[in-house]
Design goal:
The two termini are about 25 Å apart. A 4-stranded mixed beta sheet has the order 1-2-4-3. The chain has one domain: Vaccinia Virus protein VP39 (Rossmann fold, 3-Layer(aba) Sandwich). It is of the alpha+beta class. Strand 1, helix 1 and strand 2 form a beta-alpha-beta unit. It has 3 helices and 4 strands; from the N terminus they run βαβααββ.
């Protein structure tokens, strides 16, 4: 991910479906390279055209604690972390949906746990690169 190259102003949109949390994933076996979410979002911001959009859908985590540790344990991310990351990179939150909200999910289980798999509480955010 950190080696990703994108042509400046070349994208109208980007979509992260159940994968933004992986920018924070740190498996003990080293099977996933350590990535820098700030670097990734900087590259994405530069690659988007003015007014370009980014959609992020992911599994909800309870707030608090170390983001990388939480992601590594449960494959979930606090929506506030996502919003903070994108806003710090120069994006504006301009839409969200509760279409994939699942009240019965208490956010304590690994998303692959059979008791919750396919029924996790999820958020959907739309961010926009504000034109200059």
């Amino acid at each position: 991910m950190d080696a990703l190259t994108l042509e400046p102003g070349s994208l109208d949109a980007a979509i992260f479906v159940m994968c933004y949390h992986d920018l924070y994933w740190r498996p003990e076996d080293g099977s996933w390279p350590k990535t820098d979410p700030k670097l990734m979002l900087s590259k994405l911001h530069a690659a988007l055209k003015d007014d370009g959009v980014v959609i992020v859908q992911d599994h909800v985590a309870n707030p608090g604690g170390d983001t990388s540790a939480l992601v590594t344990k449960l494959h979930r991310i606090d929506p506030a972390v996502v919003r903070r990351d994108f806003e710090a990179a120069g994006f504006k939150l301009d839409g969200e949906s509760a279409a994939l909200k699942h009240e019965a999910d208490d956010h304590s289980k690994l998303v692959f746990d059979p008791a919750i798999k396919g029924k996790t509480d999820q958020f959907i955010y739309r961010f926009r690169k504000v034109g200059r």
